[in-house]
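User: Structure please.
Assistant: Input sequence and predicted structure:
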Amino acid sequence: MEEGEASEIDEFIVKYGERGYYVLKGLLEASLRGGAKLGDFSLRDLKDRLASYGLDYNPVPLLYSLEKVYGVIRTSYRSSNQHWWIILKRKVMEEAIAKFEGKSPENGDDYRLRLLKIQFYSLNPQRLLSELKAAARRGDRTAVAREAFSTLPLVVEFLEKAKSQYPEELSNEIELGEEILRLAEDVVKPKASFGRPLEADLVRETKVNNDSL
C-alpha cells in the first residue's frame, strides 16, 4: 500500500469525521454479505448498515467523494433504482478505520478473527436466512430439518466462538447468526409453550387411541 493512499483516506475521515468513518465501516461490512450481487455493495446495503448503527443520513455525497476524489471505490452497475460499487482499495480503508478506532494497523492482522469471518460467510448466511423466511411463510418444517443437522450446528459453533472471543468485532455476524437460529426455532416450535401439548394435538391423540380400540 502506498503511504499517500493511506494519508488520503485518513484525510477523508478527518474531513467528514464520524460520518466518514461509518460510511467506510458500513460499506466494508455490507460487502461481506452473501447473495446475488452486481458489485461488492449497493447503496441499499450501505443504508441498511447505517440504519443498524442507529444513523439516518444520506451517504451519497460521501460515496461520490470516495469514488471521484479518492478513487477507492468504482461504480459497477447503475440503474434507475440500483447503484452498486466495487471496492478497489480495501486494505487502505481497513487500516484507516483501525487507526480511527485507536487500533494499531501493524497489529491489525488477527488471523483467528479473519478465519471466523471466513467460516461464517462460507455458510452463506443470507441464503440460509432467506430460505428460512420462505419456510416460515409456508410453515415448512422439512426445510429446517435439512439444515438442523448440517448448517445450523456450524452456525452455533461460530456463535459460541464469536461471543466468547470477539463479541465486539463480530457483533454484526453474531446478530445475523442469532437471527437465523431464532427463525429456525419459530418454524419448528409449536404455537404453545415448549413442554405443553397443544389442545389440537391432544384431540388428535385421543382420536387415534379411540380408533385403535
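Strands lie at 41-42, 73-78, 83-87.
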